Amino acid sequence: MSDRASTDPRPASGRVPASPTVPTPLDLGLIFAAFLRSVPVALVIALVAAGISFLVFSRMDPVYEVKTEVSLGAPADASLDSETRARLGSLYALIANDHATRDLVKEEAGLGDPWVMAAETAVPGVIEVATRAASIGQSRAAAESVIESMILRSDAFSSRSVQVWAEDAERRIVAIQEQIDARRAEDPAADVADLEDQIGLIRQENREFRPQQVQPFVLSQSDNNGEQVWPRIWSTTLVVAMLIFLLAQIPLTIWRLRRHRRADELWLRMIGRRFEVDREMAAAGGGLTPLAEARTAAVLADGGNVLVLGESDAGETFHSHGPGHLHQTSWSASWWRELSPSDVQLGIVVVDKGERRANLAGTAVERLVKSGVPTFVVVRSGKKRESSGGIEDRDRS
Fold first, then answer.
1. Which of 17, 70, 231, 252 places its Cα 20 to 30 Å from the Cα of 159?
2. What is the C-alpha R_g of the chain?
3. How many domains, the chain?
4. What residues in the chain have per-residue pLDDT under 70?
Protein backbone atom coordinates (compact mmCIF):
# COMPACT_ATOMS: atom_id res chain seq x y z
CA MET A 1 0.00 0.00 0.00
CA SER A 2 1.39 3.43 -0.97
CA ASP A 3 1.95 6.35 1.38
CA ARG A 4 -0.84 8.19 -0.41
CA ALA A 5 -3.33 5.53 0.52
CA SER A 6 -2.24 5.58 4.13
CA THR A 7 -3.29 9.25 4.52
CA ASP A 8 -6.72 8.85 2.86
CA PRO A 9 -9.47 8.25 5.42
CA ARG A 10 -11.78 6.72 2.80
CA PRO A 11 -12.02 2.94 2.08
CA ALA A 12 -9.45 1.37 -0.24
CA SER A 13 -12.14 0.58 -2.80
CA GLY A 14 -12.43 4.30 -3.54
CA ARG A 15 -16.19 4.25 -3.10
CA VAL A 16 -17.68 7.23 -1.26
CA PRO A 17 -19.44 6.16 1.95
CA ALA A 18 -22.99 7.30 2.50
CA SER A 19 -23.34 10.33 4.71
CA PRO A 20 -25.05 9.43 7.99
CA THR A 21 -28.17 11.47 8.68
CA VAL A 22 -27.29 12.43 12.23
CA PRO A 23 -29.09 15.55 13.47
CA THR A 24 -26.78 18.44 14.27
CA PRO A 25 -26.89 19.52 17.92
CA LEU A 26 -28.44 22.89 18.61
CA ASP A 27 -25.79 25.61 18.75
CA LEU A 28 -27.08 28.26 21.14
CA GLY A 29 -23.98 30.36 20.63
CA LEU A 30 -24.62 30.47 16.88
CA ILE A 31 -28.26 31.42 17.43
CA PHE A 32 -27.24 34.15 19.88
CA ALA A 33 -24.69 35.50 17.41
CA ALA A 34 -27.36 35.67 14.70
CA PHE A 35 -29.69 37.33 17.22
CA LEU A 36 -27.10 40.02 17.97
CA ARG A 37 -26.50 40.62 14.27
CA SER A 38 -30.23 41.25 13.83
CA VAL A 39 -30.51 43.77 16.66
CA PRO A 40 -29.82 46.95 14.60
CA VAL A 41 -32.49 46.17 12.00
CA ALA A 42 -34.99 45.11 14.67
CA LEU A 43 -34.30 48.34 16.59
CA VAL A 44 -35.03 50.42 13.50
CA ILE A 45 -38.31 48.58 12.96
CA ALA A 46 -39.23 48.97 16.64
CA LEU A 47 -38.44 52.71 16.60
CA VAL A 48 -40.60 53.22 13.51
CA ALA A 49 -43.46 51.32 15.16
CA ALA A 50 -42.97 53.34 18.36
CA GLY A 51 -43.11 56.60 16.41
CA ILE A 52 -46.32 55.60 14.67
CA SER A 53 -47.84 54.45 17.97
CA PHE A 54 -46.89 57.73 19.65
CA LEU A 55 -48.57 59.75 16.90
CA VAL A 56 -51.71 57.61 17.02
CA PHE A 57 -52.02 57.67 20.82
CA SER A 58 -51.28 61.39 21.06
CA ARG A 59 -54.23 62.11 18.74
CA MET A 60 -56.69 60.05 20.80
CA ASP A 61 -59.13 61.75 23.17
CA PRO A 62 -58.09 61.40 26.84
CA VAL A 63 -60.15 59.28 29.20
CA TYR A 64 -60.41 60.02 32.93
CA GLU A 65 -61.65 57.67 35.62
CA VAL A 66 -63.29 58.18 38.99
CA LYS A 67 -63.58 55.30 41.48
CA THR A 68 -66.21 55.50 44.20
CA GLU A 69 -66.57 53.13 47.15
CA VAL A 70 -70.18 52.76 48.21
CA SER A 71 -71.42 51.20 51.46
CA LEU A 72 -74.86 49.60 51.44
CA GLY A 73 -76.39 50.80 54.66
CA ALA A 74 -74.62 52.65 57.43
CA PRO A 75 -71.36 50.90 58.36
CA ALA A 76 -72.36 51.02 62.06
CA ASP A 77 -75.81 49.49 61.46
CA ALA A 78 -75.83 46.36 63.64
CA SER A 79 -79.08 45.09 62.11
CA LEU A 80 -77.24 44.08 58.93
CA ASP A 81 -75.02 41.04 59.39
CA SER A 82 -72.14 40.12 57.06
CA GLU A 83 -74.18 37.57 55.13
CA THR A 84 -76.96 40.07 54.45
CA ARG A 85 -74.47 42.73 53.42
CA ALA A 86 -72.79 40.27 51.02
CA ARG A 87 -76.14 39.50 49.34
CA LEU A 88 -76.89 43.21 49.10
CA GLY A 89 -73.47 43.77 47.52
CA SER A 90 -74.20 41.30 44.73
CA LEU A 91 -77.66 42.81 44.17
CA TYR A 92 -76.54 46.44 44.00
CA ALA A 93 -73.54 45.60 41.80
CA LEU A 94 -76.01 44.21 39.27
CA ILE A 95 -78.17 47.32 39.65
CA ALA A 96 -75.20 49.62 38.94
CA ASN A 97 -74.34 47.65 35.80
CA ASP A 98 -77.82 47.29 34.30
CA HIS A 99 -79.42 49.22 31.44
CA ALA A 100 -81.71 51.29 33.65
CA THR A 101 -78.71 52.78 35.46
CA ARG A 102 -76.93 53.50 32.16
CA ASP A 103 -80.03 55.21 30.82
CA LEU A 104 -80.13 57.43 33.90
CA VAL A 105 -76.44 58.29 33.47
CA LYS A 106 -77.06 59.16 29.82
CA GLU A 107 -79.90 61.48 30.79
CA GLU A 108 -78.37 63.24 33.79
CA ALA A 109 -74.62 63.27 32.91
CA GLY A 110 -75.18 63.87 29.20
CA LEU A 111 -72.97 60.97 28.10
CA GLY A 112 -73.80 59.22 24.86
CA ASP A 113 -72.30 55.85 25.76
CA PRO A 114 -71.42 55.87 29.46
CA TRP A 115 -68.65 53.58 30.75
CA VAL A 116 -69.74 52.18 34.13
CA MET A 117 -68.30 49.21 35.98
CA ALA A 118 -69.37 48.11 39.47
CA ALA A 119 -67.87 45.21 41.42
CA GLU A 120 -67.92 43.83 44.93
CA THR A 121 -64.93 44.40 47.19
CA ALA A 122 -63.36 42.23 49.86
CA VAL A 123 -65.52 44.01 52.46
CA PRO A 124 -69.09 42.64 52.59
CA GLY A 125 -71.66 45.27 51.64
CA VAL A 126 -69.12 47.60 50.00
CA ILE A 127 -68.96 47.90 46.21
CA GLU A 128 -66.61 49.89 43.98
CA VAL A 129 -68.12 51.91 41.15
CA ALA A 130 -65.77 53.02 38.36
CA THR A 131 -66.91 55.59 35.80
CA ARG A 132 -64.98 56.93 32.82
CA ALA A 133 -65.52 59.98 30.65
CA ALA A 134 -63.70 62.67 28.68
CA SER A 135 -63.14 64.77 31.81
CA ILE A 136 -62.97 64.29 35.56
CA GLY A 137 -66.11 66.39 35.98
CA GLN A 138 -68.10 64.15 33.67
CA SER A 139 -66.76 61.08 35.44
CA ARG A 140 -67.88 62.45 38.81
CA ALA A 141 -71.30 63.32 37.37
CA ALA A 142 -71.64 59.78 36.04
CA ALA A 143 -70.72 58.37 39.48
CA GLU A 144 -73.36 60.57 41.14
CA SER A 145 -75.95 59.32 38.64
CA VAL A 146 -75.07 55.72 39.41
CA ILE A 147 -75.46 56.31 43.15
CA GLU A 148 -78.75 58.13 42.56
CA SER A 149 -79.94 55.14 40.56
CA MET A 150 -79.13 52.84 43.47
CA ILE A 151 -80.99 55.13 45.90
CA LEU A 152 -84.05 55.23 43.63
CA ARG A 153 -83.97 51.47 43.33
CA SER A 154 -83.71 51.18 47.12
CA ASP A 155 -86.81 53.37 47.50
CA ALA A 156 -88.55 51.30 44.86
CA PHE A 157 -87.64 48.10 46.68
CA SER A 158 -89.09 49.56 49.90
CA SER A 159 -92.31 50.61 48.20
CA ARG A 160 -92.61 47.25 46.51
CA SER A 161 -92.10 45.47 49.84
CA VAL A 162 -94.92 47.47 51.42
CA GLN A 163 -97.16 46.69 48.45
CA VAL A 164 -96.37 42.98 48.53
CA TRP A 165 -96.94 42.85 52.28
CA ALA A 166 -100.34 44.62 51.95
CA GLU A 167 -101.43 42.33 49.12
CA ASP A 168 -100.47 39.26 51.13
CA ALA A 169 -102.37 40.57 54.19
CA GLU A 170 -105.43 41.24 52.03
CA ARG A 171 -105.34 37.68 50.64
CA ARG A 172 -105.16 36.26 54.15
CA ILE A 173 -108.06 38.44 55.36
CA VAL A 174 -110.21 37.39 52.36
CA ALA A 175 -109.50 33.73 53.12
CA ILE A 176 -110.50 34.14 56.79
CA GLN A 177 -113.61 36.10 55.83
CA GLU A 178 -114.65 33.22 53.59
CA GLN A 179 -114.36 30.89 56.57
CA ILE A 180 -116.56 33.23 58.65
CA ASP A 181 -119.19 33.35 55.91
CA ALA A 182 -119.14 29.55 55.65
CA ARG A 183 -119.75 29.09 59.38
CA ARG A 184 -122.63 31.55 59.46
CA ALA A 185 -124.19 29.94 56.43
CA GLU A 186 -124.42 26.67 58.38
CA ASP A 187 -125.35 28.27 61.69
CA PRO A 188 -126.26 31.94 61.92
CA ALA A 189 -125.49 31.85 65.64
CA ALA A 190 -122.02 30.24 65.18
CA ASP A 191 -119.11 31.69 67.18
CA VAL A 192 -116.61 33.43 64.80
CA ALA A 193 -114.77 35.53 67.36
CA ASP A 194 -111.49 33.61 66.90
CA LEU A 195 -111.49 34.27 63.17
CA GLU A 196 -112.33 37.94 63.65
CA ASP A 197 -109.43 38.20 66.10
CA GLN A 198 -107.09 36.80 63.41
CA ILE A 199 -108.30 39.45 60.97
CA GLY A 200 -107.62 42.13 63.57
CA LEU A 201 -104.07 40.86 64.16
CA ILE A 202 -103.33 40.83 60.42
CA ARG A 203 -104.56 44.42 60.02
CA GLN A 204 -102.48 45.53 62.99
CA GLU A 205 -99.33 43.87 61.58
CA ASN A 206 -99.98 45.55 58.24
CA ARG A 207 -100.23 48.98 59.92
CA GLU A 208 -97.03 48.39 61.90
CA PHE A 209 -95.00 46.92 59.02
CA ARG A 210 -91.90 48.97 58.23
CA PRO A 211 -89.59 47.42 55.61
CA GLN A 212 -85.85 47.62 56.21
CA GLN A 213 -84.62 50.23 53.76
CA VAL A 214 -80.93 50.11 52.77
CA GLN A 215 -79.51 53.43 51.61
CA PRO A 216 -76.16 53.60 49.75
CA PHE A 217 -73.49 55.78 51.40
CA VAL A 218 -70.36 57.11 49.70
CA LEU A 219 -67.29 56.08 51.67
CA SER A 220 -64.52 57.45 49.42
CA GLN A 221 -63.84 58.71 45.94
CA SER A 222 -60.59 58.99 43.92
CA ASP A 223 -59.80 60.43 40.50
CA ASN A 224 -56.30 59.00 39.83
CA ASN A 225 -54.75 62.32 40.90
CA GLY A 226 -56.33 64.00 37.92
CA GLU A 227 -54.30 61.97 35.40
CA GLN A 228 -55.87 60.28 32.41
CA VAL A 229 -56.13 56.51 32.43
CA TRP A 230 -56.11 56.19 28.65
CA PRO A 231 -54.19 56.52 26.51
CA ARG A 232 -50.99 56.10 28.53
CA ILE A 233 -48.86 57.40 25.71
CA TRP A 234 -45.32 56.71 26.93
CA SER A 235 -45.88 53.39 28.65
CA THR A 236 -48.04 52.02 25.83
CA THR A 237 -45.56 53.19 23.20
CA LEU A 238 -42.74 51.47 25.10
CA VAL A 239 -44.73 48.23 25.26
CA VAL A 240 -45.47 48.40 21.52
CA ALA A 241 -41.78 49.04 20.76
CA MET A 242 -40.64 46.08 22.86
CA LEU A 243 -43.25 43.78 21.35
CA ILE A 244 -42.41 44.78 17.77
CA PHE A 245 -38.69 44.42 18.52
CA LEU A 246 -39.15 40.84 19.74
CA LEU A 247 -41.50 39.93 16.90
CA ALA A 248 -39.07 41.36 14.35
CA GLN A 249 -36.11 39.55 15.91
CA ILE A 250 -37.61 36.10 15.32
CA PRO A 251 -37.80 36.20 11.49
CA LEU A 252 -34.60 38.26 11.24
CA THR A 253 -32.64 35.73 13.29
CA ILE A 254 -34.02 32.83 11.25
CA TRP A 255 -33.23 34.71 8.03
CA ARG A 256 -29.64 35.30 9.13
CA LEU A 257 -29.22 31.64 10.01
CA ARG A 258 -30.67 30.41 6.73
CA ARG A 259 -29.88 33.15 4.21
CA HIS A 260 -26.62 34.69 5.43
CA ARG A 261 -24.69 35.61 2.26
CA ARG A 262 -21.68 37.56 3.54
CA ALA A 263 -18.52 35.72 4.53
CA ASP A 264 -17.67 36.50 8.14
CA GLU A 265 -17.30 34.78 11.52
CA LEU A 266 -21.00 33.95 11.67
CA TRP A 267 -21.05 32.46 8.17
CA LEU A 268 -17.96 30.38 8.93
CA ARG A 269 -19.49 29.01 12.11
CA MET A 270 -22.72 28.15 10.29
CA ILE A 271 -20.82 26.34 7.53
CA GLY A 272 -18.74 24.42 10.05
CA ARG A 273 -21.81 23.52 12.05
CA ARG A 274 -23.87 22.54 9.04
CA PHE A 275 -21.33 20.35 7.25
CA GLU A 276 -19.10 19.44 10.24
CA VAL A 277 -15.93 20.55 8.46
CA ASP A 278 -12.71 22.07 9.79
CA ARG A 279 -12.36 25.79 9.30
CA GLU A 280 -10.09 28.73 9.94
CA MET A 281 -10.21 32.50 9.72
CA ALA A 282 -6.85 34.23 9.54
CA ALA A 283 -4.86 36.84 7.63
CA ALA A 284 -3.50 35.21 4.49
CA GLY A 285 -3.08 37.81 1.77
CA GLY A 286 -3.87 36.09 -1.53
CA GLY A 287 -2.85 32.60 -0.43
CA LEU A 288 -4.02 30.09 2.16
CA THR A 289 -4.26 30.51 5.91
CA PRO A 290 -1.50 28.96 8.06
CA LEU A 291 -3.42 25.83 9.06
CA ALA A 292 -4.67 25.30 5.51
CA GLU A 293 -1.08 25.57 4.23
CA ALA A 294 0.07 23.03 6.79
CA ARG A 295 -2.59 20.51 5.80
CA THR A 296 -1.92 21.10 2.10
CA ALA A 297 1.80 20.53 2.60
CA ALA A 298 1.13 17.28 4.49
CA VAL A 299 -1.11 15.88 1.73
CA LEU A 300 1.25 16.93 -1.06
CA ALA A 301 4.22 15.44 0.77
CA ASP A 302 2.44 12.07 0.76
CA GLY A 303 1.74 12.35 -2.95
CA GLY A 304 -1.94 13.16 -2.55
CA ASN A 305 -4.13 15.58 -4.50
CA VAL A 306 -5.38 18.89 -3.13
CA LEU A 307 -8.29 20.76 -4.70
CA VAL A 308 -8.52 24.51 -3.99
CA LEU A 309 -11.80 26.21 -4.87
CA GLY A 310 -11.67 29.99 -4.99
CA GLU A 311 -9.08 32.62 -5.84
CA SER A 312 -5.69 31.74 -4.38
CA ASP A 313 -1.98 31.92 -5.23
CA ALA A 314 -1.33 28.59 -3.49
CA GLY A 315 0.30 27.33 -6.68
CA GLU A 316 3.23 29.68 -6.15
CA THR A 317 3.65 28.53 -2.56
CA PHE A 318 3.66 24.81 -3.37
CA HIS A 319 5.27 24.77 -6.83
CA SER A 320 8.12 22.61 -5.54
CA HIS A 321 5.86 19.70 -4.51
CA GLY A 322 5.55 18.34 -8.01
CA PRO A 323 3.16 19.19 -10.83
CA GLY A 324 -0.31 17.76 -11.15
CA HIS A 325 -1.13 17.37 -7.44
CA LEU A 326 -2.44 20.87 -6.62
CA HIS A 327 -5.60 21.75 -8.54
CA GLN A 328 -7.21 25.19 -8.46
CA THR A 329 -10.55 26.33 -9.90
CA SER A 330 -13.57 28.46 -9.09
CA TRP A 331 -16.40 27.70 -6.65
CA SER A 332 -18.91 26.89 -9.38
CA ALA A 333 -16.58 24.85 -11.61
CA SER A 334 -17.49 21.21 -12.37
CA TRP A 335 -14.18 19.92 -11.04
CA TRP A 336 -15.40 16.30 -10.72
CA ARG A 337 -15.46 15.95 -14.50
CA GLU A 338 -11.67 16.16 -14.64
CA LEU A 339 -10.76 14.85 -11.17
CA SER A 340 -12.52 11.96 -9.48
CA PRO A 341 -13.61 12.72 -5.91
CA SER A 342 -12.00 9.48 -4.78
CA ASP A 343 -8.62 10.85 -5.97
CA VAL A 344 -8.87 14.04 -3.89
CA GLN A 345 -7.37 13.77 -0.42
CA LEU A 346 -8.14 17.38 0.62
CA GLY A 347 -10.58 20.00 -0.65
CA ILE A 348 -10.09 23.63 0.40
CA VAL A 349 -12.71 26.33 -0.17
CA VAL A 350 -11.21 29.82 -0.02
CA VAL A 351 -13.28 32.99 0.47
CA ASP A 352 -12.35 36.51 1.52
CA LYS A 353 -13.97 38.08 4.55
CA GLY A 354 -16.83 40.37 3.52
CA GLU A 355 -17.46 38.49 0.27
CA ARG A 356 -21.13 38.93 -0.60
CA ARG A 357 -21.30 35.76 -2.69
CA ALA A 358 -20.62 33.46 0.24
CA ASN A 359 -23.63 31.37 -0.76
CA LEU A 360 -21.66 30.20 -3.82
CA ALA A 361 -18.78 29.18 -1.57
CA GLY A 362 -21.27 27.37 0.64
CA THR A 363 -22.53 25.42 -2.37
CA ALA A 364 -18.93 24.46 -3.18
CA VAL A 365 -18.47 23.18 0.39
CA GLU A 366 -21.66 21.16 0.14
CA ARG A 367 -20.53 19.50 -3.12
CA LEU A 368 -17.18 18.53 -1.63
CA VAL A 369 -18.72 17.10 1.52
CA LYS A 370 -21.40 15.13 -0.33
CA SER A 371 -18.72 13.80 -2.67
CA GLY A 372 -16.86 12.38 0.31
CA VAL A 373 -13.87 14.73 0.03
CA PRO A 374 -12.22 15.79 3.34
CA THR A 375 -12.97 19.52 3.35
CA PHE A 376 -11.37 22.56 4.92
CA VAL A 377 -12.97 26.04 4.75
CA VAL A 378 -10.82 29.17 4.78
CA VAL A 379 -11.93 32.77 5.33
CA ARG A 380 -9.12 35.22 4.71
CA SER A 381 -9.57 38.15 7.08
CA GLY A 382 -6.89 40.48 5.72
CA LYS A 383 -3.39 40.85 4.48
CA LYS A 384 -0.53 38.80 5.88
CA ARG A 385 1.85 40.94 7.95
CA GLU A 386 5.11 39.63 9.34
CA SER A 387 6.21 40.49 12.86
CA SER A 388 8.43 39.07 15.56
CA GLY A 389 5.60 36.82 16.63
CA GLY A 390 4.81 35.57 13.12
CA ILE A 391 1.49 36.21 11.43
CA GLU A 392 -0.81 38.71 13.14
CA ASP A 393 -4.58 39.14 13.07
CA ARG A 394 -5.37 35.45 13.15
CA ASP A 395 -8.77 34.23 14.25
CA ARG A 396 -9.35 30.51 14.20
CA SER A 397 -12.94 29.35 14.59
1. 70
2. 46
3. 2
4. 1-27, 29-30, 158, 160-162, 209-212, 257-260, 322, 382-397
